[in-house]
Amino acid sequence: MTGMMFSSTIAHCLPQSAMSLSYSRNNRIPIPISSFSFRRRRGNSQNNATNTIICCSTVSTSNSAVNYQNTNTATVGIDGAEVLDCVIVGGGISGLGIAQALSTKYSSRSPNFIVTEAKDRVGGNITTVEADGYIWEEGPNSFQPSDAVLTMAVDSGLKDELVFGDPNAPRFVLWNGKLRPVPSKPTDLPFFDLMSFPGKIRAALGALGLRPSPPAHEESVEDFVRRNLGDEVFERLIEPFCSGVYAGDPSKLSMKAAFGKVWILEQKGGSIIGGTLKTIQERKNTPKPPRDPRLPNPKGQTVGSFRKGLTMLPTAISERLGSKVKLSWTLSSIVKLPNGEYNLTYETPDGLVSVRTRSVVMTVPSHIASSLLHPLSDVAAESLAKFYYPPVAAVSLSYPNEAIRSECLVDGKLQGFGQLHPRSQGVETLGSIYSSSLFPGRAPPGRTLILSYIGGSTNPSILHKASNLSETTVSYGSNPEL
């Protein structure tokens, strides 16, 4: 579930008086409404399963790497079965999505499986908080409304709870002290002021194929974009996008992994434009499969959520799965049995529980999966241990509407989707999402809610900052013109 990650202040829409530290009762000072929330963003990965343990974004174990071990814990049956078809480890959206797919696709066979979650709630990093008239997210903020995600929502009974952002809401990039809109359609390209005229010409020629040939080795995002589209596109558009969406370093992110749909265009057509034209022709020649008529049809490039926040989705799936979801079950070991089955031992509120299953799906963070898989496969465990999770702090702030300059408000709401901050602009925060403008019901009347992110691969020191310091960074640490 990928959110559109921006982060931090409201740029030139805030008065100068809101930008200085003050302990007075000034109603222009933003109110931190969120408990300080750290999360680590997942890096790029591959899914290459070869046996019956499937680890989300990793390789699986091999038969030769496993030795049978006895356990003193009695095996218990689940729903009358001594051996399950599958155990899904992790009750985040990945694990729950797999569980729902099993229930839907194999409903006639009634697959026997469980989802186990170490926490006392489902959802994983999806953390929605509702308090004092606010609804805010401390993890992912939204999702791309693909048919797969919409199907999951509709199958969970949440069709009427879906909300979508305004596709026409402007997105901004902070450059030279000014918020500059990002073009939303091709006809905007000649007129937007984020790039210079020479920069636009360089991008156009590169997209047509007048650029250096691709190297033999795999390129990073930075290498690919600078070669194909020029320095300005990278520095003013792609670099802040990578920081906001991946919290990553574009000089290290794989272009093929992070932006595969763009990367393949050059491979397919010799240039970005050539590949685009070829893709359009292929689509014309390939009939579209019929779309599920139950699905809503969001307009334009937008993002989605639910009326009461993202947590509605994992909660709804969990409620439908019922007793198949086991909370506060902490997996302590996995053992491969001689007959090819697996024995999983859990610490639960009722004591140690041992479960036998024919297959296992791991949807937990890579460092947890690594420790659990070490007895089964050193190769898998060592590969998982190398995954890097950039630290990111999510901070939500509430401003009174009178603290926002009137020209930035439309019908009492901050105009726009959000803003991104290129690292070269000297603003510590990655950017901001205008939460109360993006989705309805996120703030009380007369208040504006801003969700900000700090940290990422280029600023890992945020992990060691106290929450009050980070809130101060978001509120006051921006460009003086903001």
TrEMBL record:
GO terms for cellular component: chloroplast thylakoid. It catalyses: protoporphyrinogen IX + 3 O2 = protoporphyrin IX + 3 H2O2. Binds 1 FAD per subunit. GO terms for molecular function: oxygen-dependent protoporphyrinogen oxidase activity. Catalyzes the 6-electron oxidation of protoporphyrinogen-IX to form protoporphyrin-IX. GO terms for biological process: protoporphyrinogen IX biosynthetic process. Belongs to the protoporphyrinogen/coproporphyrinogen oxidase family. Protoporphyrinogen oxidase subfamily. It is found in: Plastid, Chloroplast. Its EC number is 1.3.3.4. Keywords: Chloroplast, FAD, Flavoprotein, Heme biosynthesis, Oxidoreductase, Plastid, Porphyrin biosynthesis, Transit peptide. InterPro entries: Amino_oxidase, FAD/NAD-bd_sf, Protoporphyrinogen_oxidase, Zeta_carotene_desat/Oxidored. PANTHER family: PROTOPORPHYRINOGEN OXIDASE. Residues 280-294 have a biased composition (Basic and acidic residues). SUPFAM superfamilies: FAD-linked reductases, C-terminal domain, FAD/NAD(P)-binding domain. This is Protoporphyrinogen oxidase. Residues 279-301 are annotated as: Disordered. Its cofactor is FAD. It holds the Pfam family Amino_oxidase. It comes from the Eukaryota.
